[in-house]
Amino acid sequence: MKRVDRYLLARVDLPDSHTLAVYRAHGGYQALEQVLRKPWKPEQVTQVVKDSALRGRGGAGFLTGLKWSFMPDPAKDPRPRYLAINADESEPGTCKDRVLMERDPHGLIEGCLVSAYAMRASTVYIYVRGEYRVSYARLQAAIDEAREAGLVGRRILGSDFSCEIWMHPGAGAYICGEETGLMESLEGKRGHPRPKPPFPAASGLWRSPTTVNNVETIFNVPFLVLRGADWFKALGTKGSTGNFLCGISGHVERPGVYELPFGVTAREILEQCAGGVWKGRRLKAFFPGGSSTGLLPASSVDVVMDHDSVKAAGSMFGTAAMIVLDETASIAQLMEVTLRFYDHESCGQCSQCREGTEWLHQIFRRIVRGQGRMQDLDLLVSLANGMAPAKTICALADAAAIPTLSAVKHFRAELEQCVRLGRDPLATATAQSPEHHEAHA
Amino acid sequence: MTKITVNGREIEADPKQPLIRACHDAGIDVPMYCYHPGLTPVGSCRICQVEVSQQNQPPRVVAACKTSVAEGMTVQTDAPKAREVRRECLEFLLKNHPLDCPICDKAGECDLQDYSFNEGQGCGRSVEPRRKLHKRRSLGDVIVLDEERCILCSRCVRFCGEVTKKPQLTVSGLGAHSVISTFGDRPLTGNYQGNLADICPVGALTLKKFRFQARVWNLAKTRSTCAECSRGCAITVEVLRGRQVKRFRPRYDPQVNQWWMCDTGRFALGPVQQPLAAAGAVHGGRLAGACVRGPGGLARATVDAALGAAREILGNKPAPLVLGSPFLTVEEGRALQALAAALPVAAGFVAPPPSGLADDLLNTGDPCPNRRGLTELGLRPVEPAAARKALATARAALLVGERVTTLLGADELAGLPAAVRLVVFDTQAHALPGLDVCFGVPTHVEKSGHWVNVGGLRRPLEVALAAPRGVAPLETSLARLAQLLSTAGARS
After folding, report:
1. Which position among A336, B76, B246, B294 has the lowest Cβ density within 10 Å, counted as fewest Cβ atoms?
2. In this complex, which of B46, B125, B154 lies closest to A379 when CB atoms are compared?
3. Residues B347 and B446 placed together within one structural domain of the fold
4. φ, ψ for residue A214, nearest 5 deg
5. By the CB < 8 Å criterion, does A389 face chain B?
6. CA-to-CA distance for A141 and A104, rounded, in angstroms?
7. Is residue B79 part of a domain?
């Protein structure tokens, strides 16, 4: 693997990296000054983002510039415009945004301001996962510091551009990381996703034009302004440009968040960044992008980490949150834990998701406890196909169905063995006790 | 209007309405649970999936309640893919459903039952234990909630928020553990709670008063109009085995009540459920036939004898007072007017003061369902107090129609001087000093005719229940009496 030109994590290891002084000393707020002083037209910022082919880092990989261009023309649409930052990072395995928010909060704030300028939004909401207390405190402190310095609020840096940034902590629901669930929650309602269309750009927060972007996505924007689209496209691959943050966890020697260009292989991340599978064991399987992406067997470890290649391998790039399992891990137990999560987090609106996530969880739990039946494997596939793709309001049902389908596809023999033996030989003892793990206990 | 093709048929669709509405309006069935034409669509139950193709794009299966119609859209409601998605959806919905249809009041008119029968699979594949939740959670005086049967369509939540504009219900809990509950577990209030049982697509919300009263397939349904205020909501009268009215339910009328009715009207079953007076007796229930005052007080008589006695009284006393009930139909009002003309006097009708139940949704607070119809005929509305005053000084009076004595105040009438001779057509005979002749009449569910509501709309009554033997239609009786009076007049 060639040397990585780090920019996303360039400042995070500096002492007091979360302060305005350190941020400024390392080139902070130059993009904002350039945009406001030169001045750039808002369309110019959008154009750079479009040219860069930056894809959203929240999991779906949608083109950010294209998403921004869905915002209606302000000359024809007088409604207020909002930018909402999705900092509700709750996908199992994903922990990348937290690093940025805790250790480089001004980077996100500058990204918010430049992006809000591009979209002509004068209000930004940062919706932070409830458990991220440090992220919340650091961001709030940074916003206060920036406001003091005239970087947030009215007439920023003496220009005509005014922008307010508000923090909003979540209360621990995964579903509030779904963009429409996030908007409902921001409005003070239950985090029940809205059917789309209308999409947020047409009718979002308080029925006004809204763009919802991931933290890391927005964090890229000031670099695009300063360094240009060509620099960005030179990093990464044709369909997936720039660097991304990979949070690798599970059975590895050095779990952590690493910055890598698109195009590295999963093996390179595992072996060179994370120090390989722990305890000298062999790799069994891995989620390439968080627990909602298809589980891949060890044979797929040479997959190139970009959106198109991971898709071709039968999974999804997701949030690049690799979860690694060694040879001693039980697939049935992994799936029991994974589906318990989705069962617990389903909002309960759609029939398929509310009942299906619980059902899948119950079946995997029976298999782990040795009460599986041979027909359960086909039933898992049939139920998962009844939940996805795109059969429900949001993608939580898909997020439960996709790992289920991949687990049965790649590890059917192991699951069948659990059924035949009447026990899961690999599961830990606690997982097999009947009192263990009721989703809503 | 937008032209779309549904199942090969070209139909006109309102572009402001969702696709499912266009299909329903064209008589094409698309299943629905969370969708209700009177509520904002939310697209959560996912049962209304149909296959849609647009402009040479490959067909997609979409939720019809959240899809807008577009020119040239082609829809297949029964495409194999759409049917498959609906089958899957039903399997998920039934996974934790208690399937207690044999003891469920909704059975027979349950959407979950009907669609499962039409589109579901023969048997479930779940071996997991079913969810155990509250089977009888009281939500106030009107509604009881069975949480196990609930499919979380949220129609009830939206009804409170959107129709009555008083949010009282919410979904609490998360995911598979969601339940419907009231805010702070307070009982439901308001005069529109009964509608919750109507819009509940399953047997989760049921009426305390209808619980275990009848199997709905034994109820004969007849269209009619509500009698409890001048709004004249369209209703269905539901009669069990030809004997007893069990339910009033709202019937869709876009100009009057849409899908709703108030609880005052819904539960006004007392007057139409009165048992008959014992054989030979005059008091203590509905009067079938007629009675005439004899030497030993009121006694049963033939209708002919009673009509003769009525003619004697009305024909011989000067200017008898003629008062109708506000429940008279337009047709009955006309017959009463004809009779009054033979006397000759002007007829009026008893118009009780406002009930105090008026709200800004349906109830007008005017307890006269046909005030407008009778007024337009030329009958004078008379307040009960004024009517009693007039009665006290009259020599004779003719009181006509369902509940007329009660509306005038049976207790106050008991204090009338005995010199005031009364001929009464009412559903029951009250003990009044001057009561000489009394005829049984049909209730508003036992007659046909029309009422004119507060907005001037003429709405029908149909015979939902046969009147007791011996009770003739009021128009017939009035016409016969008018005939007797005019021939008597000719003779003298």
Report:
1. B294
2. B125
3. yes
4. -75, 155
5. no
6. 12
7. yes
- Tell me: do B137 and B55 sit in the same domain: no
For B85, the domain range is 2-92
Token pair of A392, please? 């429900």
- Indicate the residue type of A380: L
Shared domain for B324 and B456, answered yes or no, is: yes
Q: Is the dihedral of CA B323, B326, B331, B334 positive or negative?
A: positive
CATH number of the domain residue B88 falls in: 3.10.20.740
Residue A125 CA to residue A136 CA, distance in Å, equals: 12
Write out pLDDT tens, residues B95-118: 999 999 999 999 999 999 999 999
CATH code at B206?
Answer: 3.30.70.20
Whether B347 maps to a domain, the answer reads yes
Examine the domain organization and report whether B376 and B429 are in the same domain.
Answer: yes
Helix (H, G, I), strand (E, B), or coil: what is residue B190? coil
Asked if B151 has any chain A CB less than 8 Å from its own CB, the reply is yes
* A398 lies within 8 A of chain B by CB: no
| CA nearest to B164, candidates B188, B146, B137, B181 | B188
Strands B234-240 and B219-225: antiparallel
Q: Is residue B374 part of a domain?
A: yes
Distance CA B221, CA B241 (A): 11
Q: Does B178 touch chain A if contact means CB atoms closer than 8 Å?
A: yes
Report the alpha-carbon distance of residue A295 to residue A92 in Å, rounded. Answer: 13
CA torsion B15-B17-B20-B21 (nearest 10°) is: -110
With beta carbons under 8 A apart, name residues in chain B contacting A357. 175-176
* Residues within 8 A of B (CB atoms), A 329-348 only: 343-348
Same domain, B141 and B6: no
Nearest CB partner across the interface for A355, out of B44, B61, B93: B93
Please indicate if any CB of chain A lies within 8 Å of the CB of B177: yes
Query: Domains, chain A, ranges and CATH?
Result: 20-234 (3.40.50.11540), 243-326 (3.10.20.600), 331-432 (1.20.1440.230)
pLDDT in tens, B404-452: 999 999 999 998 988 899 999 999 999 898 899 999 999 999 999 999 9
Element (DSSP H or E) covering residue A72: none
Name the nearest CA neighbour of A63 among A78, A76, A72, A52: A52
B26-75 pLDDT tens trace:
999 999 999 999 999 999 999 999 999 988 889 999 999 999 999 999 99
CATH code for position B303: 3.40.50.740
- Structurally, chain B folds into a number of domains equal to 3
Whether residue B72 is found in the same domain as residue B137: no
Residue B118 lies in a domain: no
**Residue A255 distance to chain B (closest CA, Å):** 32
Residue B346 shares a structural domain with residue B296:
yes
A and B: number of Cβ contacts within 8 A: 91
For residues B135 and B68, membership in a common domain is answered with no
Tell me the pTM. 0.93
**B46 contacts in A (CB within 8 Å)?**
350-352, 391-392
A348, A379, A386: residue with CB nearest B174: A348
